[in-house]
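Quality-control log, excerpt.
Job 1 of 2 completed; input and output follow.
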Amino acid sequence: MKVDSIRGLLDWTAGYHQHLSNCFAKSAEKQQNDRSQMLLNYLADKEMDLATRVRAFKDVGEDKALNTWCTEHIDKHPLMAEAACDDAYTTMDSNAIITEVEQQHQIIILLYENLYDRSPKEEIKELLAKVRDLQQQEAQQMMQGANRLEDI
């Protein structure tokens, strides 16, 4: 997917979370460890919810901000490809799954932080900050929920 505007970036971000959700759900079906299976199902639900919430920014964001070009930044800092949805998660233990998910979310958060830092206009900064904050809050909630599953 070629991303050239903030609107496109929101589509990419939502699509990435949806892809992760589908990947986790498929992996949960094959996971032998009950705890890891519960974690993957939990993460699949959270990622799908996050995808929906990111898409909603397109409905409430100002067209001026949504249509802002971000190709220069994306060309210099390419978006990560969709995470491979192979059998990796089916053999990972819950700690490895948590670590992997946390790393992926950090990359997305850094992307929004970098764009925020480079944005000259306040309406763009405001939109990017809201998406970044949502990403941070949801990642934190996922990690807390995952850690609670470890306590079971």
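Job 2 of 2 completed; input and output follow.
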Amino acid sequence: MTGVRIQALFPEHAEQVLGIYQAGIDEGNATFETRAPDWAAFDEAKMPGHRFVALDDDGGRVLGWIAASTVSDRCAYAGVVEHSVYVHPGARGLGVARALLDALIVSTEEAGVWTIQSGIFPENTASLALHARAGFRIIGTRERIGRHHGLWRDVILLERRSPVLT
């Protein structure tokens, strides 16, 4: 993909990253969250070695971001992370999410992570298709797992097992 540079996500990206996160929240099919966290909460929740931004040619505009979080502090789950990926509405369909996902896969495999997982609303068909193309598989559906804007929502659970580490 030309015109996009993937690099580590730093505090100077915070405003744009959180703005993209809020745009995804506002669309209604990305997360149960209703408001993006402040930078301190985001920073604390995301693993430092596994968060990236996609920047435009000039390096000033964030087109999207990806970040991983631990799923448990139990040692048995040390190789399992959960991720989120969000793309600016104006940059969708350009391969930004796939480039970000590829960067996350490389960083997690280098760190010994054997499973990346995610939960996606079934209505988010673009994200489901992206993840399938990147080697994720559906492992189940959590039916009516939570209420979102007054409606019960299902969440499809996906995972990618590293072929290098399993």
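Post-run check on job 2. The mean pLDDT is 94.
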